[in-house]
């Protein structure tokens, strides 16, 4: 049976994954619009570290049900500092680097979740034997 | 089934993924445990169906669907194990009575 | 759907850059065209990029503030043609001048290179998205 404490971890990871994949979309838009005149590069203000901190706080103490920072309220902010002659502020190197980092963060979360599921499955199916 | 009381050894034999279930085992009827497991399987099955529907109409994420599917499967596995243990125990009792 | 929507966003980038490369190629191919069916030399064309949503139901999956890109228009470059003194040329006018297209070869080559780099960047982003999606599908396995 899935215990509430375990379910909380599932839900926290699900939220983190949602946020990460949502950010990937914003980064994709920056790359797609790197030559669009007047386009301002955008990103979210939440940092991965903040998210991870609130996740570890939630899971280490079973008694405290600390709510994760509400990621659904994340706002898009302009991030470009250098403006090209056509008004475009996309810094391609920054975007590609962030896309790679964000992608790795997402994959790491999936990996962690996968391991957790495999461990639980093993405990369920093998734990009773011997 | 509800007369079959759980003794302290049975929790140790039972393959639950968490220790908190076993702490309450001595006074929990085995039948209740199985019922709870079945109930959770139903709930999670329903959840994963809903999640899939939402995904197909662009309202949900792929990872949410996958997580819902895995949770339903884990719950189902648990239920199967509980059921298997019950059948096993029942068979042993039947042998003893002969 | 975020990952799939991101794929669409980068795909729109691919389409737009490809169109840009096509137009640049057309300009290069016609850099010496003094005679067109409409009369007169070839006039250089340019693409206009603009942010865009998606026409089908996937538009609802776009996060607020996130947009793809599209070529909203292909316009003609209004800059003046290039007049060169070539009295022997069949298209020379009364004064011996031939009017050549307003295509600058260096400009078009630079455009092609930029389009190619931008195209590659979108490909890179798509590649990472594909990995993310595949790993998600393998969850728990």
Describe the protein in words.
The complex is a heterotrimer of chains A (130), B (98) and C (141). Helices cover 59% and strands 5% of the residues of chain A. Chain A has helices at residues 4-32, 48-60, 92-126, and strands at 42-44, 76-78. Chain A has a two-stranded antiparallel sheet with strand order 1-2. By secondary structure, chain B is an all-alpha fold. Chain B has 4 helices and no strands. Chain B starts with 8 loop residues before the first helix and ends with a helix. Chain C has 141 residues and is of the alpha+beta class. Chain C has one domain. Chain C is 43% helix and 18% strand. Chain C has a two-stranded antiparallel ribbon with strand order 1-2. Chain C has a two-stranded antiparallel ribbon with strand order 3-4. In chain C, helix 1 runs antiparallel to helix 2. The longest helix of chain C has 33 residues, at 105-137. The two termini of chain C are 21 Å apart. The mean pLDDT of chain C is 92. Classes of the chains: A mainly alpha (130), B mainly alpha (98), C alpha+beta (141). Chains in contact: A-B, A-C, B-C. Chain A binds chain C through residues 18, 21-22, 24-29, 31-37, 39, 42, 76, 92, 95-96, 99-100, 103, 106-107, 110-111, 113-114, 117-118, 121, and chain C through 2-3, 5-7, 9-10, 12-13, 16-17, 20, 48-51, 62-69, 114, 117-118, 121-122, 124-125, 128-129, 131-132, 135-136, 138-141.
């Amino acid at each position: 049976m899935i215990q509430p404490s375990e379910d909380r971890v599932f839900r926290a990871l699900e939220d983190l994954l949602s946020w990460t994949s949502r950010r990937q979309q914003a980064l994709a838009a920056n790359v797609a619009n790197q030559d669009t005149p007047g386009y301002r590069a955008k990103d979210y203000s939440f940092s991965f570290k903040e998210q991870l901190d609130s996740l570890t706080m939630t899971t280490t103490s079973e008694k405290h049900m600390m709510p994760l920072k509400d990621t659904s309220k994340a706002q898009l902010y302009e991030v470009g500092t250098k403006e090209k002659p056509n008004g475009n502020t996309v810094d391609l190197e920054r975007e590609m680097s962030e896309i790679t980092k964000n992608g790795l963060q997402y994959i790491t979360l999936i990996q962690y979740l996968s391991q957790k599921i495999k461990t639980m499955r093993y405990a369920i199916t093998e734990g009773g034997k011997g | 089934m509800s007369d079959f009381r759980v003794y302290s050894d049975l929790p140790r034999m039972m393959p639950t993924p968490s220790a908190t279930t076993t702490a309450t085992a001595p006074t929990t009827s085995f039948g209740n445990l199985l019922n709870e497991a079945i109930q959770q399987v139903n709930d999670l099955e329903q959840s994963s169906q809903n999640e899939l529907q939402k995904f197909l109409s662009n309202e949900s994420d792929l990872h949410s669907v996958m997580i819902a599917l895995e949770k339903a499967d884990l719950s189902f596995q648990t239920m199967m194990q509980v059921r298997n243990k019950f059948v096993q125990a029942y068979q042993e009792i039947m042998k003893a009575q002969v | 759907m975020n990952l799939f929507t991101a794929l669409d966003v980068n795909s729109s980038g691919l389409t737009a850059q490809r169109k840009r490369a096509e137009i640049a190629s057309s300009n290069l191919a016609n850099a010496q065209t003094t005679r067109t069916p409409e009369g007169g030399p070839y006039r250089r064309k340019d693409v206009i990029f603009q942010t865009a949503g998606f026409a089908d139901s996937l538009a609802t999956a776009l996060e607020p503030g996130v947009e793809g890109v599209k070529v909203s228009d292909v316009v003609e470059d209004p800059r003046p043609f290039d007049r060169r003194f070539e009295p022997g040329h069949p298209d020379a006018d009364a004064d011996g001048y031939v009017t050549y297209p307003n295509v600058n070869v260096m400009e078009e080559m630079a455009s092609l290179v930029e389009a190619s780099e931008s195209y590659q960047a979108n490909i890179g982003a798509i590649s990472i998205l594909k990995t993310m999606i595949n790993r998600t599908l393998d969850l728990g396995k």
